[in-house]
Amino acid sequence: MASSVENQQWVALSQELANVIEKLSGSIVAVHGGRRLAGSGIHWRSGLIVTANHMIRRDSELSITLPDHNSSLATLVGRDPSTDVAVLKIEASAGLATVQTTSTAGLKVGHLVVAVGRSHLGDLAATSGIVARLGGPWRTWRGGEMHQLLRPDIRLYAGQSGSALLNAQGQVLGMNTVALARMAPITVPAATVDRVLGELLEHGHIRRPHLGLAMQMVSIPDDIRGKLKLESATGLLVMHVEPNGPASKAGVMLGDLIIDFHGKVIEDISTLEETLARLRAGEQAKLTVIRAGEKRELIGIVGDRPIRKQPASREGNNLHLSEEN
């Protein structure tokens, strides 16, 4: 049987967890975004709710269930499917507390964490576990940049996507979602949420680097390789140049063969994608192309990818960089 001391320790831990969750409860809401069940949301900044983008199926007629079970209308500020973050502006934020966020700097695998959200009816809901995995910066399958991989060993029940992940001090480490990894919750770190929120407030969308080209990987003839002393046996043949797009303004022409981009030898589409992803819209970039058997260096400004409803199109080795993912 457990000793009296052990029982006291268990009761103390249980009460401490309950206190931490209760303290945060005034910042956690339920978000009704058009799905059968509501998602959870976090009052991140005054009047601004952060939630999971995949729980928002429409851009209007959004509502929030507040901690006191009253409702408030909300408007969509913007969304970033690549990190699964959406930001809503709430009309009635009086009485809602903003959360205290923290970095993952001191976090270790095995640390106790708690996820706090709300059910469809607005009731407080929580689940606990440990930090299962920590990693460095990574890119989601939709191209979103994450400051750090944070995978908690928790189960997110229906409605808990968009919930907050707390550390032992009751500080918010980030927002939980089930949309970024198969069969496992992922926490979007607070630093990533802050970056996405700031960009959505400023631009209404996430600015993504854009060239405005469609390309096909091709082999470079041996005589051209020898003449120009090229490292790579392949390059990217320009199949389409978007009129008035960034590449067009830099002087790229149909039929050019791209062999270097921003100091990186380009052998295939993925290499160019990875290099482009590290740039920001508005940055200067250099393209080296082969035209009429000679090397040419072109300087251009990386553009902001236009927002399109349809995803990027891939057919064979073609990549349409002008379309939205």
Brief overview:
The protein has helices at 4-24, 190-203, 222-228, 246-250, 269-277, and strands spanning 28-32, 39-45, 48-52, 62-65, 71-80, 85-90, 112-118, 124-134, 138-139, 145-146, 150-153, 164-166, 172-177, 186-189, 209-210, 213-219, 234-241, 257-261, 264-265, 284-291, 294-301, 303-304, 314-315, 318-320. With 325 residues, it is α+β, with helices and mostly antiparallel strands.
Q: Structural class, please? A: alpha+beta
Write the element-wise H/E pattern from the N-terminal end onward: HEEEEEEEEEEEEEEHEEHEHEEHEEEEE
Count of helical regions: 5
pLDDT under 50 segments (min length 5)? Answer: 309-325
Considering DSSP H and I runs of 4 or more, what fraction of the residues is helical?
10-25%
The whole-number mean of residue pLDDT values reads 89
Profile the largest sheet.
8 strands, antiparallel
Distance between the termini: 58 Å
As a whole number of angstroms, the C-alpha radius of gyration is 24 Å
